[in-house]
Amino acid sequence: MARVLDQPRYKCALGAMNTVQSIPNAIPILHSGPGCASKLSGFAGSSGKFSPNLFPCTSVSEKEVVFGGSDKLRDTIANALKVIDAQLFVVLSGCTSELIGDDIGEVAGEFRRDGKPVVYANTPGFKGSNYEGHGWVLQAVFDQYLPAADTVTAKQTGFVNIFAGPPQADPYWHGNLRELEKLVASLGLTPNTIFGYGRGVPSLDRLPYAEFNLLVSPWVGLDALEFLSKKYGTPLLHYPVLPVGAFETSAFLRAVGEFTGVSKATVQSVIDENEKEYYYFIERYADMFLEMRIISKRFSIIGDAQYALAFTKFLVNDLGMFPTTSYITDRTPEQYRPLILDEFRRLNYGIEADAEFLTDGYEIHRRVREKDFNGFPLIIGGSWDKALANDLKGNYVNLLNPILEKLIINSHVAGYSGGLKMLEEIYTAGLSRLIL
Predict the structure, then answer these.
(1) Which of 10, 57, 250, 269 has the smallest number of CB atoms closer than 10 Å to its CB?
(2) Rounded Cα distance, 396 and 273, in Å
(3) At 398, is the secondary structure helix, strand, or coil?
(4) Residues 224-275: pLDDT tens digits?
(5) DSSP state, 241?
(6) 13-144 classified as CATH 3.40.50.1980
């Protein structure tokens, strides 16, 4: 039976238009109703070349519902190729075009066979979320745009393709990717990413030549990266935890080093140098971190699988805090849930964290209110959770979607420096309560 879903924290699969917009010189072409894209784009950014409000759309109407919309899609693609100076066009389908049976693959294929850089992905909202749509778009690009494996003559030694959270669905996507690049480069490897400033289609063209693929994500994009790895015979390291803070970042560097064959001495040298700086700052503010009047010891996280897991590991392993239940809001597919729950049990000090997969904001808030935090809780979540934290007289940190009260341009939470950024956010929230 249908029911109302309160405050969902994901979009429909067509929201993967943001994935395309985050590849410089790529642009989405939407075969959907006129209102879909405007609602999905929101405050999303773009690759920088094109406005985030530029997305050719067929604006499917009653006429196309009755007579079919393939001809209109064909005209829309042809006109986009004439007036938009993009290097890659990605056709995405909405619910209406899927329901009436338009074959967007056939239409896009006509242009591709004519040498035009046009690919397609089926992304109707009834099929999945924007998290799943992100993977479908990646796999479509890997399959339809990249060359056949037998044309790739040689791999580049030490060259590593890096993928992490879905751009723009992850508010820190740009900064996190740059930080992951720095970490990988510190081991003497050459990182390659396709999203954000200075990357784009040229970086996309280099994907087949990598010696290794690296996915830093609990589940988003895994199918696509497995496809890419199989297509070119490239080994894939799936690291399910976004490294935040010293403990997980050092574990990440060791895992990457072992997988890519970097010497243990080199890896340890990089870790020692970074941890020395990290703990220098920790020691300077140790008295504040130990003052429990500022921040309570118990916390709950409301957000997608990537951040619920990453922040739980950081708060327990680096700060010695105690988790209550965290709530994973990205509608994680069933097949990935056991792996994620297992990671919540892999914490220091013998601590195991509870996590629940829930998408209904009302139900999440009801369950949080029933928890015994043994004092004032720390609530890490989105803007919708601020009132909840206030009701519980807790500390509230807005690090997860929706983020409506602050601007994130190029901040990051990954790595050693990301852990320090987390501490700034958390203790700023605590200190602000002392002056009320």
Answers:
(1) 269
(2) 33
(3) strand
(4) 999 999 999 999 999 999 999 999 999 999 999 999 999 999 999 999 999 9
(5) S
(6) yes
